[in-house]
Amino acid sequence: MGEHMNVRTPKQFVVDARAVTRHIEAICGLGDRFAGEPGDAAVADYVAGVFEELDLSLDRTPISVTGYREERCSVTLNGHQELEALTPYYTRGSETRIQAPGVFLGDDQRLDRYDVAGKVVVFEETDESFDFFWLGTLAEKAADAGAVGIITIHPLPWPYRQSMETGLADLQQRFADRSVPTVCVAAAGGMRLMRAFGAGKCDITLDVQTARPTVESDLVIGLQAGRGESLERIVLMAHRDFAIAPGANDNGSGIAAVLELARVLKDLDFDATIEYVSLPSEEGSAPGAAAYVEHLQASSAKVRAAINFDMLAVGGRLRLVEGAGWPNRKMRYHAPWLNALLDESAAELGYELGRLDLAWGVGDNGRLMEAGIPAAWFHKPDDYRYHSRHDKPEHVDGNAVKAAAEITALAVWRLASGLESGGHDH
Q1: What domains are there in the chain, each with its CATH number?
Q2: Least buried of 193, 232, 376, 394, by fewest C-beta within 10 Å?
Q3: Mind listing the pLDDT tens digit for each residue in 65-98?
C-alpha cells in the first residue's frame, strides 16, 4: 500500500443499520420530493447538511427538469362507484370531466383491431411484472384511434404510479406528441370494472387534473478530495426523488447508503477523489443523471467507477444488475470487472450477492454507461409496494442497506488504493 496509505482492515468498515433507518425516516418526513417540489429541496438540504457535518466539500449545481403534480384524480363507475386510482407521472389532464363508455382490451395493445373512438380503453396487467409501465406510446396510439382515456388494472391490492413517458432512451423522444388522460386502478377496482362489463354497462367518468411545469432542482455532491493532482473519481450515487410519497425503499434506501458510506470512508486518504452524489429526477428517463454526466464532462474528471444504489431495503436477495435496457435499445451491460470486485468484497465479508437482468429500464447508471463510465448497480427488484403509497419506512430493512454499503466500502478502499485484484479489464 505504501507508507502514506491509511491501513484499515475490512472489519473496520462498519455501517450502522440504525443510522440507515433514521436517515430513511427523516427523508420520508420531508414531504413531496418529486423534482422541483418543496420536499425535493428539503431533502437536498438534508443531504448537504450531512456532507458538511462530515467535512466534505459541497457542490450544489442547479438544473432544470420537468416536474409533475397530480392535482386531482378520480374514477367513477356507472355514476356512483368510486375506484381508487393514481395517474402515471407526466400524465396530461383533461380540461373537463370525461364521461364515456369503457372498452376492455385485456393486455392487447393493438388498438387498430377495436372500435375505441369516444371510449375509455381498459387494459389489464396479467401479473405483477409491471409490463404496462411506459405508457406514452400507448397513450399516443389511443389518441390517434379516437379514445378519450385509458385505465390500466394492476393486479396488486393498490394502484401504482406508472410513467407517461415513451421509455425511449433519447431524452428528445421522452414524451409522445399526443396523449389521453390515463389512470391506474388496483385489483379491487379491476373486479368492479369486470362486473360492469359482464353486466353490459360500464360507463366511466374520469376527472384528471395535472401540471407539468419546468422546475429547478439541484445536483448535490459531497467531495472527498484525493491526494495530489489526480483527476480520477469514484462515484457513489443514488436518486432522492420518488414516484409517490413516502418513497422509503425507492429511494430513501439508496440515499441512506450513500450517506453512511460518506461517514465510513471520510477519514481515509485516497489518490482518487470520491464523489457522494444525490441526484434529482431519476423517475422515468433519468434526466437528472444526464445533467450530472454533463457536469462531470465539464469538470474534466475521469471517472474510474460509478456505483448506484436504488431500492435496496425490501424484497429477496440483494443483487447486482448485469444487463439493463430501455425499450428501444439493446441490453447494456454493467462493467464485469466492477461487478467481480464487488462479488469478491461480498465474499470476504460473508455476504451473498445475486445477479439479474432488467429489460424495461436502466435508471441513473444507464446515463453514465452511455458516456462510457464503468458502472455497477445494487438493486432488489421484488418490492411489491413499488411506486405506491405503501412504500413506507416501517417496511424497509436497514440491515440490507448495511450489507450493500459495507460491500461497497471494501471495494472502494481497494479500488481507490490500487489494491483490487488483477485481471480486470479496465
Answers
A1: 10-67+213-417 (3.40.630.10), 69-211 (3.50.30.30)
A2: 394
A3: 999 999 999 999 999 999 999 999 999 898 889 9
Please tell me the distance from the alpha carbon of residue 250 to that of residue 77, in angstroms, as a whole number. Answer: 32
Instruction: Give residue for cell 454533463.
Output: 294
Maximum Cα–Cα distance across the chain? 81
CA 357, 361, 362: angle at the middle one, nearest 5?
80
* Residue pair 312/253 in contact by the 8 Å Cβ criterion: yes
CA distances in angstroms from 82 to 73, 185, 200, 286, listed in the order given: 11, 11, 19, 34
Q: What is the CA radius of gyration of the chain?
A: 23
In the numeric block, the cell 441513473 is attached to 364
Q: What gap in Å lies between CA 244 and CA 408, rounded to an integer?
A: 28
Asked if 314 and 247 count as a contact pair (C-beta separation under 8 A), the reply is no
- Put simply, whether the predicted model's pTM sits higher than 0.85 gets the answer yes
The pLDDT, as a whole number, for residue 328 is 78
Task: Quote the cell numbers at residue 244.
Answer: 409517490
**Paired residues of 214 in beta bridges:** 66
The per-residue b/e assignment along 19-58, b for 16 or more CB within 10 angstroms, e otherwise, is bbbebbbbbbebebbbbbbebbbbbbebbbebbeebebee
The sign of the CA dihedral 164, 172, 131, 387 is: negative
